[in-house]
Amino acid sequence: MAIQPIRLFGDPVLRTAAEPVQVFDKELRTLVKDLAETMLDAPGAGLAAPQIGVSLRVFTYHVDGVLGHLVNPVLDLSDEQQDGDEGCLSLPGLTFDCRRALRVVAKGQNEFGDPVVVEGSDLLARCVQHETDHLDGVLFVDRLDREQRKLALRAIREAEWAGAAPVVKASPHATFGAAR
């Protein structure tokens, strides 16, 4: 297990749709552990594989004392909505009011390929939607209303970390997802 550098806004991997996981092996289990360790160290409520430079459909979450992960998620969202502050480890220090579905049922797999269903509302629903967006190359600022998005983009331009060269090291998962 190792804490990985988190990619920041502007890194192309954050805008690229991740590939489905097809191989459930030791490498995947190591990736899940690295995601969890990096997320808890940050600290954050969730972290998706693209945020550490791995373009695979995997994320971890830590909400209400529950640590979990989901591979290849597919979401069923409630029609009822919630508004609330949302932030992102790839946009450090910034939070904005973002509308999300109030409840989610997420179907996917665990690190061994077994079927998993994650159901939740409020913060868990927000987190699952946020991390699944990362897997689709979508950032939460893309979901803001027009006025909030303008404020967010201004704050990003003015952020201390904006325009900095990304901190990237060779990921032990660099070959992950490649055809084998």
UniProtKB/TrEMBL annotation:
Keyword Metal-binding carried by entry: yes
Protein biosynthesis listed as a keyword: yes
E.C. code: 3.5.1.88
One term of GO molecular function: peptide deformylase activity
GO BP annotations listed: translation
Gene3D superfamilies: Peptide deformylase (3.90.45.10)
Co-factor(s): Fe(2+)
Active site residues per record: E131
Keyword tags: Hydrolase, Iron, Metal-binding, Protein biosynthesis
Cofactor note: Binds 1 Fe(2+) ion.
Catalytic activity: N-terminal N-formyl-L-methionyl-[peptide] + H2O = N-terminal L-methionyl-[peptide] + formate
Pfam families: Pep_deformylase
Residues annotated to bind Fe cation: C88, H130, H134
InterPro entries with a match to the protein in the record: Peptide_deformylase, Peptide_deformylase_sf
Record family assignment: Belongs to the polypeptide deformylase family.
Summary of the function given for this chain in its UniProt record: Removes the formyl group from the N-terminal Met of newly synthesized proteins. Requires at least a dipeptide for an efficient rate of reaction. N-terminal L-methionine is a prerequisite for activity but the enzyme has broad specificity at other positions.
NCBIfam families given in the database record: pept_deformyl, PRK00150.1-3
Protein name: Peptide deformylase
Gene name tied to this protein: def
